[in-house]
Design goal:
With 333 residues, this protein is an alpha/beta fold. It is 39% helix and 17% strand. It is elongated. It binds 6-O-phosphono-beta-D-fructofuranose (F6P).
């Protein structure tokens, strides 16, 4: 069960800020709403920082009330906007960021984002002592210390809906389709979408298939009377992998159509699962900060809310479950 940690009675009125950073993910707004309303309900002053760490460095900080986050739980994207901030890699910049927060009377920072965003928060706290806490928000689900991230479920459902449509036309025309999904260097989206969409095979960073093997899979299918094939390709570090594979398949005598789902996976209304996850993690992040815990990320492990120190999160890679890889292979025979 996802239980929100106890909040001890506060001796002084706390003043917290929230920002979103890195790639946006459906459900970030639900997390912002939860952070703000849970904080207000425990007597805190709440603030929103626009455009991630870049906005923080510009002092883009606004007080948020309950009405500021009304009617956003169902909206994709992030009302706070987001950014990937190169300048935050500099130590002096992080010191300046802490000074800005202190000058604005803020005594705790909630960062919603992924590994890069948490690296910034971790260094900020290590170097300046400013309390930070992270909420995992990325469609990639590639963050160590948590089984799930906000946005993953929605992205998988969005990609699945597209695959179902492509399957219709693939089967009408007896075609092979290479469908490229996001996930940078991790195959979580590719694996879930591949299993859920009944793909013939999946090309994942964790289980690279040779072109010869892909051809064998297509041939095996056609011997069983299959006239169309769906191959899910995780983008890997360099988007465009599916186009390169299509060229290689063409050289072996197969014509494959390519469909890159790209940023369609990042937008749209969050699923019920992501709204709930965001609501629980948003409130838990505030509860932990108010209990004096920081320099850590809130996450979910085996259906429980957990607090994982940033030092065990940043720079660590979570790998896809090898059993799921076996399942994917078994089901695509
Ligand atoms: O990290 C989320 C993600 O959507 C990855 O899956 C993808 O590789 C990357 O961001 C794309 O980033 P950008 O929006 O900068 O193109």
């Amino acid at each position: 069960m996802l239980t929100i940690p106890e909040v001890p009675k506060q001796k002084k009125r706390r003043s917290l800020a929230v920002l979103t950073s890195g790639g946006d993910a459906p459900g970030m707004n639900a997390a912002i709403r939860s952070v703000v309303r849970f904080g207000l309900s425990h007597g805190c002053r709440m603030h929103g920082i626009s455009k991630g760490y870049s906005g923080l460095l510009e002092g883009n900080i606004t007080p948020l009330e309950s009405t500021s986050v009304a009617n956003i739980i169902q909206r994709g994207g992030t009302i706070l906007k987001t950014d990937r901030c190169e300048a935050f890699f500099q130590r002096a910049t992080r010191r300046e960021a802490a000074n800005i927060l202190i000058r604005n009377g803020i005594d705790g920072l909630v960062v919603i984002g992924g590994d890069g965003s948490f690296t910034g928060a971790h260094l900020l706290e290590n170097e300046t002592g400013f309390p930070t806490i992270g909420i995992p928000g990325t469609i990639d689900n590639d963050i160590a210390g948590t089984d799930d991230t906000i946005g993953f479920d929605t992205a998988v459902n969005t990609a699945l809906a597209a695959i179902d449509r492509i399957r219709d036309t693939a089967s009408s025309h007896d075609r092979i389709f290479l469908i490229e999904v996001m996930g940078r260097s991790s195959g979580f989206i590719g694996l879930s979408v591949g299993i859920g969409g009944g793909a013939e095979t999946m090309i994942l960073p964790e289980s690279q298939e040779t072109v010869a093997n892909i051809c064998k899979t297509i041939e095996r299918g056609s011997r069983r009377g299959k006239t169309s094939s769906i191959i899910v390709v995780a983008e890997g570090k360099k988007p465009g992998l599916s186009a390169r594979l299509a060229r290689d398949l063409w050289k072996k005598g197969y014509t494959a159509r390519v469909c890159i789902l790209g940023h369609t996976q990042r937008g749209g209304s969050p699923s019920a699962h992501d709204r709930l996850l965001a609501s629980v993690l948003g409130a838990s992040a505030v509860a932990y900060l108010l209990a004096g815990k920081s320099n850590a990320m809130v996450g979910v492990r085996e259906d429980s809310v957990v607090l994982c120190p940033f030092r065990k999160v940043v720079g660590f890679k979570k790998s896809v479950d090898s059993q799921m890889l076996h399942l994917a292979k078994a089901l695509s025979l």
